[in-house]
Amino acid sequence: MQRLLVKVLKKTQETRYRDRNGLDYAKYRLRVKVEGSAIGALSVPKGVIGKETTIGREAMLPWGIKTRDLIVLDPGESARVLRPRKPVVDLGCAGPGRIELRSGDPDRDGYPEDVLANQFLAAVVQPHRGARLLSLKDCSGRDRFASPFEYIMAGKYILLGGAEPVLYESGSPGEIWKSEFERGEPVVSDTAVEIDYSRKLKEPEGVALRKHVRVSSDFPGTTELYTVSYAGKKKPAEREDGAGNGEDGDGKKKKDETDVSFGIRMSTRSEGDPVSLNVFELPAGGDLVRVRYHRPPYGRRWRWRDWRDEHFGLKPGFLVARNEGDGRAMAVLFAPGSGCLAAVRSDYPGPEVTIRHAPRKVKKGGRTRFGLAFLIGNDAASTGTSMFMGSVGRGGRGGIPVALTLRTARRVDAPRASVRTATGRRSVTLAAVDVPGAGRIHTKTITLPRAAFPLDCTVRAGGERLSVRLEA
């Protein structure tokens, strides 16, 4: 949700009173005009600037409120200006075995979003904010991402929530996170929905970014495949500054290439105040490192915030963020051994995580790809080499879907999961699936009656034993 900055055009004092502390206040009815976004770096939809509306405010006397004062509207007031009617877009899961694409404005910021839903989740993508994955909700409506849209870091960078793409090295992260991407024509079938989002960047010169998002009917997550292409630098005659003659200081012809290091920055969900209940499980050096970040209820932020990034090399190709309160988890999958680095930091809205790929050089006319997947579940278990997750979907008359997913760096062949239910025990064989850009997983979706819950699911991978417990 975006907040707006307005100017007071007209004021009417409705009443005046004294509070129990002896301070004088006045209640006003104000006619205001929209000047722009409360955060200057963010755009507003066309036709919003100059709109007028009426709001109520209280102010301490003798200062009060004057005409021409600037005021920030609260989220509800901003929503009425940006999108006067209540959004009707459904943020729930699709029915059993179904796949759906919906369009609307669920966050009421005046811009359309895409909602990709299957029987396990609903994913919200914001084309106008870098095509970020804004929200990832399970069938109970619980989101895996924070939404700290009102927070400003150092007065420049705005944490909008979700998962945003970032280009490092000679890239320009700021241009991506707040830019509008062109939306391609969606492809919807009985088994999947896919959409491309693309943008040509001003910096680095000649670079274009295309993001391919896919949600399939039986996968409890969403996959993202990024293609970074490089068209080359402009010729000297095409450049406004007359620079770029293609030669270095010794008169030798330079290679026309660019350095790209791709990353995903996430503001993960934190529950409870003042303590974050997120624990991160990171497979580093063959061991599992658990990192907890707690924030105190008071004190100056710059004194208690942990500005030190903790970095981990993640060769097995996964990271798990789990809520210690309810056990619900999100796993981020990427290509094993691809040189990815995870940086985790305690931040105001909750822990912030960045997964960064190793730098690559892209020659003129060339391209490179980066991929990852976001997987959500009701419970997860991890070791230094493996991750096992259980996901419960939206049920129907035929029962409740349950997806079991194994990611492991160990060599396994058709692993079998033992599922102990309230009515008996069964064995489930997990099938190998190659996730585009994120590597191989083993997964299987089964359907069970509600009476079978709770479930205790166990899988063995190369001598390791991982177990999860699932409730309906």
Largest sheet: 10 strands, antiparallel
| Helix-and-strand structural type | mainly beta
Binned strand content? over 45%
CATH top-level class of the largest domain: Mainly Beta
| Unreliable runs | 152-156, 296-307
Question: What's the structural domain tally?
Answer: 3
The best one-word shape is globular
Q: Examine the coordinates and then state which fold CATH places here, giving the name of the CATH topology of the largest domain.
A: Beta-galactosidase, Chain A, domain 5
Mean model confidence by pLDDT: 86
Number of strands: 36
**Annotation field: number of helices:** 3
Radius of gyration: 25 Å
Q: How much helix is in the residues?
A: under 10%
State the end-to-end CA separation. Answer: 32 Å
Please give the CATH architecture of the largest domain.
Distorted Sandwich
Descriptive overview:
The protein has 472 residues and is mainly beta. It has 3 domains: 4-82, no CATH class; 100-244 and 256-375, Beta-galactosidase, Chain A, domain 5, CATH 2.70.98.10; 381-470, Immunoglobulin-like, CATH 2.60.40. The longest helix is centred in the first third of the chain and has 8 residues, at 75-82. The two termini are 32 Å apart. Helix content is 4%, strand content 49%. The radius of gyration is 25 Å and the shape is globular. The strands form 8 sheets. Strands 12, 13, 14, 15, 16, 19, 20, 22, 23 and 27 form a 10-stranded antiparallel β-sheet that branches. Strands 11-18-25-24-21 form a 5-stranded antiparallel β-sheet. Strands 28-29-30-34-33 form a 5-stranded antiparallel β-sheet, with no helix packed on it.
